Amino acid sequence: MRKLLFLSVCMVLLLGSNALAVPETFNESPTFAEMVAAGELPPVEERLPKDVYVVEPYEEIGRYGGIVRSTTTNAMHAGGDFLLSIFPAPVKPNADLSDIVPNVVKDVVPSEDTTVWTFHLREGLRWSDGEPFTSEDIMFWYEDVLFNEDLTPTIGSPWRDGATGEIVEVIAIDDYTVEFHFPAAKPFLLNDLIHVTGTNMFVPKHFLSQFHPSYADPDELRSMAEAAGFAEWYELFGYWNDNTWGNSHRVGRPVLTPWVLDTFTTDRRTWKPNPYFWQVDTEGNQLPYLEGIHTEIVSDIEVVTGMIMSGTVDIEGRNTSLANYPLYRGYEEEGNYRTVLWDTTFGNAVFFMFNMTHNDPVMREIFQDVRFRQAMSLALDRDEINDVEYFGQGTPRQFTLLESSVYYEPEFATAFADYDPTQAAALLDEMGLDAKDSDGMRLRPDGERLIIIMEYPEVVISRTAVVELAVQYWQEVGVDVRSRVISGELQGQRTAANLMDATNWIGGRESDVLFPLQANYYLVPANLGWERTHWPLWENWFVTDGREGEEPPEEIKQLNQWWVQVLQEPDPDTRVELGKNILRSQAENLWMIGTVGMIPHPIIVNKNLRNVPETGFWGWDSTYTLNRNPAQVFFAE
């Protein structure tokens, strides 16, 4: 994997608009040209912003036309269609993750102490319905969404000081200039804005204000909510403010993405080009080139795999896995596609979590005992997992950051990562789990069999094969772990209710693009998440300032204190040491248990699709394909 540079906005102070020359003239798709001729759209020159974003094509200038076929296993989440879209966030990672560059905004300028950040918007940029995108939209988010307790019960860490709780002040200087004033240094703000945090800032006031009590007649708003089947106005507002990676699943909701949702049924969602999309190629052709996207909503990953093999999918990466790589290659001719391998940003392809705040006090005591987590880690044969599931392409390791990180130390990756079932069994015996039943399975201290249900959704990448191997290893040391695939929605409900025994998830946030900014997702309990189950009650205690959840022990509080210090520490060397403290705690305590990391990821691409890079980074840190300007993809014929 290429070396990832350490990002610090104290070092990379800023950001100008993309350096490519703006073309003198602009062109548009034949469909839009016909609409202009019919008086249904203004000319393309009037639809593009003054500060247009110019994309240098990966391979060549494209041609207009063609509908891409994609899939999703989750009707309300990202699928293959989202791989051709973008996060409409202020900024984004560049192609090799060495910098953060402008995206929706023209540029961002920080003060010397990074307490004030000035955002310059692209003059003339418009929402997909043609209405101007201005500072009013950001102020609507700030004043009427962020500070409305019905819509935002708890204001998250990106917008408040970790030590005092003081919230950012946002000021509109003019239509295209907005200042963010933070109470303390905010050196990693841009890193925080490349994903959903950034897209949430951009809200179409002209559209959503009709659902807000500060702008709408209360009686009319109540009637609208009831007619839509909602009991409260904020449920109706939330419905229309739907935001998945900055894309909306609501037909009619204005967006800033290259695609606008056209239809949405039980088995399909279709997208049409945004006539006001703000990117062009170097010859002035407005993007996207494609005429549309048709996404089939299917039941599971096996169906997706069958569609890939039969050639009924043009692009897919959300539901592919390296385990199926030989299968994909074997059907390339029949399916008329090619299989490209991108590096991943995953420090671990699959890692495991045991609920240390379990409602059952016996299970809680077991899971909180570090010897249990050490034993479960030593019981895993990572070399076999790597050989069997990843064809030896990965690196057996503990959950930690990528080797390219400035926070990385070799001992973080090797901690309790050897395959030693004898030592694993000895640790389990030592902690009092030495009694077994007639099947050789270990008993809890209360005499009941120790049964652990590993529940997880089979999304993003397939993990079942790795889970099945892990279950086998754990059964061999007498721990009765049983796996169960559930939906992401159900996991979210069960996690929120603290009903999960254990789960697993994939890596991410293990490069310096997102660590230490988002160490709170896995390594620090300061952010509630549906996919994480190792400390939900402690997380809830932190995010509610102690009003809910359960007060954690001091060593867990220390994790949070280190993280808060990292976010505000002006000295880069001190930040690194604080970050290493967090990672050292993970290595010693195994809050999560890793398996194999740094594996490549396959992406399926129709042979006629162009401008899809042959190499790249796949993962949350890189925004998957989205940092590669995917609106430039086109059909060669």
Question: Main beta sheet, described?
Answer: 4 strands, mixed
Ends: how far apart? 34 Å
Second-tier CATH architecture of the largest domain: Alpha-Beta Complex
Output the CATH class name of the largest domain: Alpha Beta
* Mean of pLDDT: 93
Give the fraction of residues assigned to helices: 25-40%
Please, how many helices? 21
Number of E-type strands:
25
Label the structural class: alpha+beta
Task: Estimate the global geometry from the Cα principal axes.
Answer: globular
Strand order of the largest sheet: 2-12-10-9
Query: CATH superfamily of the largest domain, please?
Result: Dipeptide-binding Protein, Domain 1
Radius of gyration: 25 Å
Poorly predicted regions are: 1-17
Q: State the assembly state of the protein chains.
A: single chain
**Which fold name corresponds to the CATH topology of the largest domain?**
Dipeptide-binding Protein, domain 1
Number of individual domains? 2
Strand content: 15-25%
